[in-house]
Write a structure and sequence with these properties.
39% of the residues lie in helices and 14% in strands. By secondary structure, it is α/β, with parallel strands linked by helices.
Length: 321
């Protein structure tokens, strides 16, 4: 079985795939036209991607392709509907990197509260600015503050557990009820409106789809506390970035921690001049939520499990289309 890995991928995963008897080609720099050429020339039956986009042109060029595996949970970067029309299955690796994303979201909360990035940037410039960074009106502390979690799946639950350890109050909104987590953590289900109005930190953990696109926009920012911070480690399009910049400029909210952006460069692109990242009240990371050693090893193992089931039994585990 020919496998093309068009992204970074753990070496242990490549090794295990090879042991399964697969012929593995890996090129993390493929994208657009070069990916179209590579799927055509390699005769790949399985394509594994992480950040690399798989559009209809790639799927049309791939005459042997049977399965695309997203080495992560979200699959909005793959044209999974077009894949279906070509009888190509798309599978993902849900839950494998959820703790890593919870940790990053929590880290952004702590960083915003104590302005860790600005502290460091001043120190790197040789500036000692204790007067500014010790202002208690700007560092409110996390204990007793309310975190509102939109989407209480595995990532949201990971945040709730960490926030409980920090003695924070917990609210959530989800289309699903989680009575066990409510009992275990004392987290309370509320409407989105209540969550926006009462939370000091609002953290988003929903997939990107027609219902969630721009679910946080001008109207929602208008409901939030002026001291609130929003954290987005889900998908960029969930937050209307223009409205975010305006809400920060107008003092409707205090800050934002972003790991994802409405228009995100591919893994091998170098330039990223998004105005949202020039904003002094925004702390950003490079869509690294899933990028811990633990998470990537778990994702690689799941990819191997999916390939093995497909190769030996013709099954598609975690099929999303
Ligand atoms: C996910 O969907 O799980 C993440 O976006 C994965 C990643 O960044 O690799």
């Amino acid at each position: 079985m020919n496998i093309l890995i068009a992204d970074k991928f753990e070496a242990s995963g490549v090794e295990q795939l090879t042991k399964l008897g697969c012929a593995v080609t890996q090129d993390a720099d493929l994208s657009g036209d070069s990916l179209v050429r590579a799927v055509k020339e390699s005769g790949a039956e399985v394509l594994v991607v992480r950040s690399t986009k798989v559009d209809s042109a790639v799927l049309d060029a791939a005459t042997q392709l049977k399965l695309v595996i997203r080495a992560g949970a979200g699959y909005n970067t793959i044209d999974f509907k077009h894949a279906r029309t070509k009888s190509i299955s798309v599978a993902n690796c849900p839950g494998m990197n959820s703790i890593a994303v919870s940790e990053l979201a929590f880290g952004l909360m702590l960083a915003l509260d104590r302005r860790l990035v600005d502290n460091t940037l001043d120190l790197r410039k040789g500036v000692w600015n204790k007067k500014e960074y010790s202002k208690v009106t700007r560092a409110r502390g996390l204990k007793g503050r309310t975190v509102g979690i939109v989407g209480l799946g595995q990532i949201g639950a990971g945040i709730a557990r960490r926030a409980k350890a920090f003695e924070m109050d917990l609210l959530y909104f989800d289309v699903v009820d989680y009575p066990d987590l409510e009992r275990e953590l004392g987290i309370k289900k509320v409407t989105l409106e209540t969550l926006y109005a009462e939370s000091d930190f609002i953290t988003l953990h929903v997939p990107m789809n027609d219902h969630t696109k721009h679910m946080i926009s001008t109207g929602q920012f208008g409901m939030m506390k002026p001291s609130a911070c929003i954290i987005n480690c889900s998908r960029g399009g969930v937050v209307d970035q223009q409205a975010l910049v305006k809400a920060l400029d107008d003092g409707q909210i205090a800050g934002a921690g972003l790991d994802v952006y409405e228009i995100e460069p591919g893994a091998s692109d170098k330039d990223f001049a998004d105005p949202v990242m020039q904003h002094p009240k925004v702390y950003g990371t490079h869509h690294i939520g899933a990028s811990t050693e633990q998470a990537q090893l778990a994702v690689a193992e799941e990819v191997v499990r999916i390939v093995e089931a497909h190769k030996t039994r013709g099954e598609v585990l975690n099929c999303v289309n």
